[in-house]
Amino acid sequence: MWLRIRFTAMVTSLLAISGIGIMAIAMPPLPVVKLAPSGASQWEIPTVYKADPKMKVEQLSSRTLWKEPAAELRLAEDKPLTPPDWRIVAVVKTGGSNQLVISFKDNPANLQTLSAGDKLPGGFPVMRIEQNWVVISVNGKKAMLAVGRN
Questions:
Q1: What are the pLDDT digits (tens) for 9-67?
Q2: Confidence (pTM)
Q3: Total domain count, the chain
Q4: Residue 51 domain-assigned?
Q5: Residue 102: count of CB within 10 angstroms of its CB
Q6: By residue range, what is the domain housing residue 107?
Q7: In this structure, are residues 73 and 61 in contact, taking their beta carbons and an 8 Å threshold?
Q8: Is residue 46, in this structure, part of any structural domain at all?
């Protein structure tokens, strides 16, 4: 048995040595690293390009992408919403649907109930009414209003 183990160890060693020899012959040489001369300038990090969105809009508007000259493009600017003169008082469940109850600053006793699909006093349509929140459409975007929080 010891003879078999010695024979296996010798064959493995010979294979390893022959593999290293073949690799030394077949492998290409390592590349030579050349150092820069001592008087060469050092590397510099390039400055970061800052894009100007107005320039991009002008570039797009000057192209004819759809066989017609582009209409006047401008950056979308959301108009700030002023605080409304009404407040959400509560959500009331009537039958199978919820209704929104609002009051006005000038007359808090004047209560108004709204259902989904109605418009708020500012003209924004009510899309969905849940117990703790209301979804309205503001300039085509959905906005969620919390109920019962200041």
A1: 999 999 999 888 888 788 887 788 777 666 666 676 667 777 777 777 777 667 666 66
A2: 0.44
A3: 1
A4: no
A5: 18
A6: 86-146
A7: yes
A8: no
